[in-house]
Write a structure and sequence with these properties.
Layout: H1 3-20, H2 23-40, H3 43-56, H4 62-81, H5 87-92, E1 95-97, H6 100-108, E2 112-116, H7 122-131, E3 136-140, H8 146-158, E4 161-165, H9 173-182, E5 186-190, E6 200-204, E7 207-211, H10 214-222, E8 226-233, E9 238-243, H11 254-275
Parallel strand pairs: 1-9, 2-5, 2-8, 3-4
Antiparallel strand pairs: 6-7, 8-9
Helix pairs in contact: 2-4, 9-10, 10-11
């Protein structure tokens, strides 16, 4: 069996087994796995520690690193279980402060853009939006192997989300998102790491990072309100808070306005991450100086 097939089989087994286990048993198993990962100090854990060090501006306490890896494991455990939950369980399983701003945006017919960090449980947040009766369109990285991407696609679509791939879609990604906003959809976009290599350089926790221009560009192009979400875990469930709508820069070229608004997004993301650093799941390189 080749590597791609092994990865596909592993994810498929994860979805089946974790959904079949009682939640306390699954939670204990993922927590134990997280603690083993911390002890082994693999590349992902070391990268997470380095990123948290940038956030803190100094050494990362061992208990914070442990909690951060546990939080990341909790994300996967809960995400594997989401498709087995009822609509009411999806609504009860997540809480979003100031969510009424999304409803108001839809009442105005504009849809709304939400810039998200890789924090808390963003899949639970998306499932909550659809369970609340609000249509949602978002973008997903085209994972390899293709079979794994197709499984993630089916998983998110089963939760009521419309998914646009970062590459290989029926039209340019931005055009499809513009159409979604015209159709009055909520458009959440992960915004703390650029995947396109065409992002905007921003100041982020004292260093230079690159973040996607998409949220700002969409807001300026369509006039739809742009919000930033903070996401974190409470003991009983994942939660979030909306900030915004962000004020678009009134002057400058489109490029200048996109850069300025993306910096505002970065600043708001940083505020939420600083409040809940253990729930920020950034296991990839982020700062350009590295």
């Amino acid at each position: 069996m080749n590597r791609d097939k092994l990865v596909e089989v592993g994810f498929a087994a994860g979805w089946r087994v974790v959904r079949a286990l009682p939640k306390p048993v699954a939670a204990a198993a993922f927590r134990a796995g997280a603690d083993r990962a911390v002890r082994r100090q693999g590349p992902g854990v070391r990268r997470l520690e380095g990123n948290l060090g940038q956030v803190l501006g100094g050494p990362v306490p061992p208990e914070l690193l442990r909690d951060a890896v546990r939080s990341y494991a909790r994300y996967w455990m809960e995400s594997f279980r989401l498709p087995s939950l009822s609509r009411q369980q999806l609504r009860d399983g997540f809480a979003l402060e100031h969510w009424e701003m999304l409803r108001e945006a839809r009442e105005r017919g504009t849809g709304a853009i939400v810039a998200l960090p890789h924090a808390g449980n963003w899949d639970a947040a998306g499932a909550w939006v659809t369970a609340m009766g609000m249509p949602l369109t978002t973008v997903a990285e085209r994972l390899k192997p293709e079979a794994v991407y197709q499984r993630f696609l089916a998983y998110r679509e089963s939760l009521g989300m419309r998914i646009i791939p970062t590459a290989g879609g029926s039209a340019p990604t931005t055009d499809l998102l513009v159409e979604a906003l015209k159709d009055n959809h909520i458009v959440p976009l992960l915004a703390d790491r650029d995947l396109s290599r065409r992002g905007v350089d921003v100041r982020f926790f004292g260093g230079k990072a690159r973040m996607p221009a998409g949220p700002a560009l969409l807001a300026l192009r369509t006039g739809a309100p742009l919000f930033v979400a903070s996401l974190w875990y409470e003991p009983e469930r994942p939660v979030g808070r909306l900030v915004g709508p962000l004020e678009p820069p009134p002057e400058g070229t489109l490029t200048e306005r996109v850069r300025a608004l993306t910096q505002t997004v970065a600043d708001e993301l940083a505020k939420g991450i600083a409040q809940h650093p253990a729930d920020w799941h950034m296991l990839q390189k982020l700062w350009l100086a590295e």
